[in-house]
Amino acid sequence: MVQPEQFVSTQIDDPLVIGGVAYRSRLLVGTGKYKDLEETQRAVAISGAEIVTVAIRRTNIGQDPDQPNLLDAIPPHRYTLLPNTAGCYTAKDAVRTCRLARELLDGHALVKLEVLGDEKTLFPDITATLAAAEELIKDDFQVMVYTNDDPIVAKRLADMGCVAVMPLAAPIGSGLGIRNPYNIRFILDEATVPIIVDAGVGTASDATVAMELGCDGVLMNTAIAHAKDPLRMASAMKKGIEAGREAFLAGRMPRKRYASASSPIDGTFF
Amino acid sequence: MSLSILVNGQTKQVRAGHTVAALVREMALEGRRVAIEINEEIVPRSRYGEHQLEAGDRVEVVTAIGGG
After folding, report:
1. pLDDT score of A68
2. Which helix (H) or strand (E) is A167 found in, with range?
3. Taking a C-beta distance cutoff of 8 angstroms, is the pair A78, A71 a contact?
């Protein structure tokens, strides 16, 4: 008999490796849209995420110097901060943002590149994304790139040297779940770097579906921050990701059209 | 003599010879984690003390905030 303690979590021996660094958690979270910094800090802690996205913006002129700051709540020595280029509509603005982020975080090279094409859908501008990725990689950034669920583009971004490719599941902040699992599967079939679903997850089962498809991780923000109870949803997402990963590794049973009895027919006494 | 510069999009008057370090102090950002670019070029933290502002400089002072 196998002793119960031999059943260990897959989280320990199944790391997510990005840019040569191994992470235990496959859930990546954003820090936007929370009620306050305390809620941000608690939700991030409960989620178990190790990679945490932040935005780069102007400081408020004349701000109260004693006012708490995001980097006090999410300290760079405890988390891997992932500065994003959210709000950038040109390759140039995205590259500028990454360079400022690298200076801000003492030479930290990991960035989340997103170059948006349209305000309504927040879909990526792929030509600008490719141009920015090329420039950033040349400048020794480690680029995790937000993209469409387009397998051809995903492969090109990986071939260029992006350290992770992050297709959207559905529009940013929409909570619609994985709209095109078949495309995500195509992307996974050709993957040479981690594939992380970024954007569109609404609830824990969406995250589980992404992981069951074989994605390496999921990045989310609104699904936690805009839940009625963000702290409980952070916990739910952590479990959803772990369940999906384990189910993927376990390998699901084949689907069948008809029933198959779970109890043996032999030995019935009736 | 005073110079006119733009800091985060707002006009500001500073003395000739004013350094980035002095500007950071005035903005009460000393010791805070910020990054600065002037005319779209990064000014490394190590150079705040020596980098003097010039008329018409466009200064951006940024930090990390919540985002996804």
Report:
1. 80
2. strand A164-167
3. no
The count of domains in chain B is 1
Residue B47: domain span: 2-63
Helices (H), A65-143: 70-73, 91-104, 126-138
Asked whether residue B68 is domain-assigned, the answer is: no
Residue of A nearest to B68 (CA): A30
Residues on chain A touching B66 (C-beta within 8 angstroms): 30-34, 37, 40, 54-55, 70
Written as six digits, the tokens of A103 are 């200076």
User: Which pLDDT does position A10 carry in this prediction?
Assistant: 47
> Mean pLDDT for each 10-residue chunk of chain A (270 residues)?
54 85 97 96 98 95 71 94 97 98 96 97 97 98 98 98 97 94 97 96 97 98 97 98 98 94 92
- The ipTM is 0.95
The encoded tokens of residue A235 equal 């916990």
Instruction: Tell me the CATH number at B46.
Output: 3.10.20.30
DSSP structure string for A157-192:
HHHHT-SEEEE-SSSTT-----S-HHHHHHHHHT-S
What is the distance between the alpha carbons of residues A88 and A101, in angstroms, rounded to a whole number? 14
Helix, strand, coil percentages for chain B (3-state, nearest 5): 15, 45, 40
Say if residue B48's pLDDT is above 80. yes
Identity of the amino acid at B17:
G
Q: Which residues of B touch A62 (CB under 8 A)?
A: 27-28
What are the structure tokens assigned to A246, written together? 């384990």
Using CA coordinates, name the residue in chain B closest to A52: B68
Our answer to whether residue A33 is catalytic in this structure is: no
pTM, rounded to two decimals: 0.93
